[in-house]
Amino acid sequence: QRLHEARACGETALALAASTGDLRMLGALELGLGAIAGQEGRQEASRDHFLRALDAMQRSGDDRAMATVYGNLGIAHAMQREMREAIAYMERALEVQRQRSSPANVAQTLTNLALARQAIGDVAAAQACIGEGMDLRVRHGAMRIDAFLHLAAGCQGFLSGQFDEGRMHLRACLEAGAQSGDERFDTDAHVVLAEMARKEGNLAVALD
Q1: Helix, strand, or coil here: 104?
Q2: Pick from 111, 104, 110: which is nearest to 150 by CA?
Q3: Cα–Cα distance between 61 and 65 in angstroms, integer?
Q4: How far apart are CA 155 and CA 189, in angstroms?
Q5: CA 200 to CA 189: how far, in whole Å?
Q6: pLDDT tens digits along 108-162
Q7: Among 85, 153, 178, 181, which is 20 to 30 Å from 143 by CA?
């Protein structure tokens, strides 16, 4: 219900922004509507909104906002399992963010990019993204995306057969989620921990 109401408000505001020709407002509203569509599971509609947001932001010259749209387009393609397209957009987001955005935003995109590269089996490139994200964390301290970054590192440990290191990161993911109150990644972390235990023949832990 709330998403439906938010979408209705956004669409009304979008029509007003279109009538005034305010490109920055158009871009921001299309970006917001794209995020709502994604939460509703309407991935193609989400992608269309993001593409319109990108067009408006390119015409307005808002480079920083364009990085946000590139990142969201990457996620939208990843949700559709279109990983090559996802990676291309995430890399474009990263180019801009490295010059204009916060370390946390750069680390967020690096983590999304690592997971996308893991999905196509490019484990070495995924490790480079995780390594850069972890370096940012060391230099700038704990970040809001710590749990997500540790989840990606834990998956990397699983995929590369480095289970001890993977478990360390997955437990750090759970701890970061508990400390922040954001436990969105707990289920994924537990699934990977269980799969590690299964591969090691520890069925009692895997089934726990």
Answers
A1: helix
A2: 111
A3: 9
A4: 8
A5: 17
A6: 999 999 999 999 999 999 999 999 999 998 888 767 889 999 999 999 999 999 9
A7: 85
